[in-house]
């Protein structure tokens, strides 16, 4: 929505004290008076002996005529960081503006952690009308100008506006990396609050002056102000892992980002996987139907590459879920009608089966094969609605190698704790006497008198050479139970 009229720009200073020059080539807009053309204001630049070149048209200098150009020459001294420029002709500054970045001089570095990458974010305003006409109408009527129809980031209003839902600005980041965001409030007269969901911002500079770093979750920028912040990729990826590159609109709840799929209909999801390997998952995004419709999404190394750990003999995916002896939509509706909390689930499941401790599935308990001395990969997914779950395998250690499709430094544990939606990949080695060992998952609540599903779901880790029949039962001498971890059903 915003186009720049600058050509032959040279903004990347290598010196803290440098002479700058840039040219502005004017291109006439349909609504502009061909005789009244804007000048540029260099917002924040300390003009040394050149202040006359930086001001409104017809006040400090003549405007630039259509098809003409003007070269700005100025000196930067004692400033590093983010500034900006804009047209200085009435409300044209709402449509023509850009960033002006002053880097440390050659050989110097930032006085803070060097960022992996830098991204400039220009916050602006947009009217569904010629902004000059908006101002003229206000002048004629004596009333306040109409408020803007949208705010923008780098010229795009974003996902909440139909006009740009497919062109929402993407700011890349990778797990554990620290990036620099240069945030500029280019709105006409409006202070703006800026935040990043679930992330903290470390302020390191304001208006091209370094500050003592401090951490916050919200920035408040007055009109024309700039703030540089460091942000670290320290959160698990959203949307259950897939980093949607320009397709976020296709990944969300029904009637919010897109229409639902009709009965008997279909929809093809097309997305790009970049920089991710491991285990993610998908689920229905319609109320509590996500408790019934879900599955794994496995991203293998690309052809020719290998895992950064011991190659497993085999791989098994374990989806931990919840089960109600009722339609889960009705459970939620009852809660809405009564104002109380929804009834807790009646069972937890592993790959859809509650396991040996529930009569309904004691003959269908999931079997996970393993052989002596082999190392296998378990991909564990917590697909429960809202319940953190603990997972363990009797008498076996688990080596964590990946979480939420990001490899980790391997470490060994006996118990996993997975929050709702989280995934963890672990290596398990058949180093115990051949038998059948329980895999189990259960919840834990420390709050007193808080209702929760206090049952345990199980599967069986079965050695090929185990000496008894497939469906072992408690007390027959061939199953090793998880002491203390397993609890009888309610």
Count of β-strands? 28
Q: What would the principal axes of the Cα set say about the shape?
A: elongated
Number of helices: 2
Mean pLDDT: 81
User: What portion of residues belong to β-strands?
Assistant: 25-35%
Integer count of domains: 2
Biggest sheet record: 6 strands, mixed
- Classified in CATH, the superfamily of the largest domain is Cupredoxins -  blue copper proteins
Rg over alpha carbons? 30 Å
Second CATH tier, the architecture of the largest domain: Sandwich
Short description:
With 490 residues, the chain is mainly β. Helices cover 4% and strands 34% of the residues. The chain starts with 5 loop residues before the first strand and ends in a 10-residue tail after the last strand.
């Amino acid at each position: 929505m915003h186009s720049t009229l600058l050509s032959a720009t040279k903004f990347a200073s290598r010196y803290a004290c440098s002479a700058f020059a840039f040219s502005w080539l004017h291109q006439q807009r349909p609504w502009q008076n061909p005789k009244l053309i804007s000048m540029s204001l260099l917002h924040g630049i300390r003009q040394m002996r050149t202040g006359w070149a930086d001001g409104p048209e017809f006040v400090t200098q003549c405007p630039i005529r259509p098809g003409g150009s003007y070269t700005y020459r100025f000196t930067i001294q004692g400033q590093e960081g983010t500034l900006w420029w804009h047209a200085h002709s009435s409300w044209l500054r709402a449509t023509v503006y850009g960033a002006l970045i002053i880097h440390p001089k050659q050989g110097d570095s930032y006085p803070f952690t060097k960022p992996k990458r830098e991204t400039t974010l220009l916050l602006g305003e947009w009217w569904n009308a010629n902004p000059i006409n908006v101002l003229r109408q206000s002048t004629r009527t004596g009333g306040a100008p109409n408020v803007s129809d949208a705010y923008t980031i780098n010229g795009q209003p974003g996902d909440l506006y139909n006009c740009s839902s497919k062109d929402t600005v993407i700011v890349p980041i990778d797990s554990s990396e620290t990036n620099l965001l240069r945030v500029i409030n280019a709105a006409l007269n409006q202070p703006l609050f800026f935040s990043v969901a679930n992330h903290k911002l470390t302020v390191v500079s304001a208006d091209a002056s370094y500050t003592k770093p401090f951490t916050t979750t919200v920035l408040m920028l007055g009109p024309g102000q700039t703030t540089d912040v460091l942000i670290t990729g320290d959160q698990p990826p959203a949307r259950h892992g897939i980093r949607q590159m320009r397709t976020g609109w296709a990944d969300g709840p029904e009637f919010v980002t897109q229409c639902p799929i009709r009965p008997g209909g279909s929809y093809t999801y097309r997305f790009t996987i970049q920089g991710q390997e491991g285990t993610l998952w998908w689920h229905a995004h319609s109320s509590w139907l996500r408790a019934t419709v879900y599955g794994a999404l496995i991203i293998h190394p690309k052809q020719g590459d290998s895992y950064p750990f011991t190659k497993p003999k085999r791989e098994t995916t374990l989806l931990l879920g919840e089960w109600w002896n009722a339609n889960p939509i009705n459970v939620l509706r009852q809660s809405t009608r009564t104002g109380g909390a929804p009834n807790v689930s009646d069972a937890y499941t592993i790959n859809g089966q509650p396991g040996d401790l529930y009569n309904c599935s004691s003959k269908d308990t999931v079997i996970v094969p393993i052989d002596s001395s082999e190392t296998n990969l378990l991909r564990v997914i917590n697909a429960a609605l809202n319940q953190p779950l603990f997972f363990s395998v009797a008498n076996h250690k688990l080596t964590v190698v990946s979480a939420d499709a990001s490899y980790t430094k391997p470490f060994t544990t006996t118990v996993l704790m997975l929050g709702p939606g989280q995934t963890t990949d672990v290596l398990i080695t058949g180093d115990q006497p051949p038998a059948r060992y329980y895999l189990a998952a259960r919840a834990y609540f420390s709050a007193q008198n808080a209702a929760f599903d206090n049952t345990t779901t199980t599967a069986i880790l079965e050695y090929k050479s185990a000496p008894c029949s497939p469906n072992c039962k408690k007390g027959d001498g061939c199953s090793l139970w998880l002491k203390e971890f397993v609890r009888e059903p309610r």
